[in-house]
Amino acid sequence: MATLTVWKFDAPESAQQVERELLDLQKQELIKVVDAATVRWPAEARKPRTKQLTDLTGAGALSGSFWGLLFGLIFLMPLLGAAVGAAAGALGGKLADVGIDDDFIKAVTSEVTPGTSALFLLSEGEVVDRVKEAIPKEHAELIRSNLDREQEAALREVFEG
Q: Where are the alpha helices (DSSP H) in 55-81?
């Protein structure tokens, strides 16, 4: 089963740097990156820039429309208002089945702000100690994951300890 995690970084370029390091770890078979997308939000920009990892063609890779929907719900909904919100609500309801609910969206919206970046990572089979080395702990924060509470607490403990 794949795990979706969202990591926030305190610099706009950090998410893409970590993504590259994780792809290097994948070559060493220490993690399987099923899919990933980054959000880069320079401090002076009005809105963030998003980028899907496009060189993955695995069966578990998510479509561009998934990332577009997710990023639209997170970054555009507060700007577009209730008219579009009602239409997106039905689509967003489908995401709740995989752990992407209103709380998930609110957490990411409040954390990923101008001057930061985020890595949305769908992965399997991590060697946690090696992945931990790739993520700069003083500049990274796990915002959300679709793990159960115990699994997420264990993951947070590894990266905070």
A: 64-71, 77-80
What is the helix (H) or strand (E) element at residue 6, kind and residue range?
Answer: strand 3-9
- State how far the Cα of 156 lies from the Cα of 132, in Å rounded to an integer: 11
Is 107 exposed, middle or buried (CB count within 10 Å of its CB: 0-12, 13-18, 19+)? Answer: middle
pTM: 0.76
Domain ranges (residues) in the chain: 3-160
Q: Mind listing the pLDDT tens digit for each residue in 62-107?
A: 666 677 777 777 776 544 444 444 444 544 555 555 557 778 788 8
Q: How far apart are CA 34 and CA 32, in angstroms?
A: 6
- Which residues face 50 on adjacent strands? 39
Identify the CA nearest to 112 among candidates 161, 151, 84, 73. 73
